[in-house]
Amino acid sequence: ERVIYERTIKRFNETNTQSQQLLFPHTIEMPAGDAALVKQLQPLLEAIGFSLKFFGKTTVIVDGVPVDVKPGLEGSILQNILDLYKEDEHNLKLEPREKLAKSFSCKAAIKAGDPLNQSEIQSLLDQLFGTEIPYVCPHGRPVIVKLSLGELDRRFGRTS
């Protein structure tokens, strides 16, 4: 989440946006409120890599997604981001772009249990330690926990 969040924040300031064009665009019928929110957030969504078109008032056609979106999530990522964005709506301290970056990074991130090979793990760790704040996720939860040798000994029943 931290890696994608910081990458997304940087994208808001870039003029050349990277987007993965979809071979088969996804058509999403939305409630009127969600469609209005997409329209309001459209410049920010496009800045992070979404390519969106409106068909009528409540139909959104997604023909491109950010490069961070995992294959198979293209159809649901926009709705998932909107749902999380709306949950965070009460947080008035954050700008819309920060809320959007948090929502996107949460939904596009590698999840617990997702299989990774050794080179992917190493790359992820390298990217994490290349971030400005590698110790917490965008929501403030710890990413790294330091355990002393004594704590490890206690957990493995090795105390004397």
Question: Can you walk through the features of this model?
Answer:
- By secondary structure, the protein is of the alpha+beta class.
- Helices cover about 45% and strands about 15% of the residues.
- Strands 1-3-2 form a three-stranded antiparallel β-sheet, with helices on one face.
- The mean pLDDT is about 90.
In short:
The protein has 160 residues and is of the alpha+beta class. The chain is built from six helices and three strands. The chain has a three-stranded antiparallel β-sheet, covered by helices on one side.
Write the layout of secondary structure elements.
Elements: H1 2-12, E1 20-29, H2 32-48, E2 51-55, E3 59-65, H3 77-87, H4 96-108, H5 118-129, H6 149-155
Q: How would you describe the shape?
A: elongated
Strand fraction: 5-15%
Number of helices: 6
Low-confidence stretches: none
Protein traits:
160 residues; alpha+beta; three-stranded antiparallel sheet; 6 helices
